[in-house]
Amino acid sequence: MAALVTGAAVGALLVKSLHPQEQQNREMETRLDKAETKLTDYQQEVSEHFAETSQLVNNLTQSYKDVHEYLANSALKLTNPDISRQLIEAGDGKLISSAATQEKSDEEGTEAPRDWAPKNPGDTGQLSEEFGLDNKHEEELKNPS
What we know:
Blueprint: H1 2-18, H2 20-78, H3 81-90, H4 94-108, H5 135-142
Helix pairs in contact: 2-3
């Protein structure tokens, strides 16, 4: 009987030593379970991050609206009717477009002052260092006759 038990023990050791693949399979399953757990935890953290970011952006938007409303109400109380009208229109986005239109029309109408600009291409303007100097006058100074 002892020989039978000893033989079974030796046989079991031989089977385990001949099949290391089973041990590797168990280790791989353990590593896979750990990786899946980590992935699930990471996905949960990402979801929480974006939920909190969304809430913070909503809070920021509401704060901006509150500040804008406060400033608009204060401006209506403290300014003249013309500015108040512009502020009311700004709520519809008209102030920005009218300011851009005004700036564009200002740029289109901008031209160099005519009192110093050259009249023809190649002519010197009044701000040029050479303006008004005649070479004939310089020659007379160099060669008095």
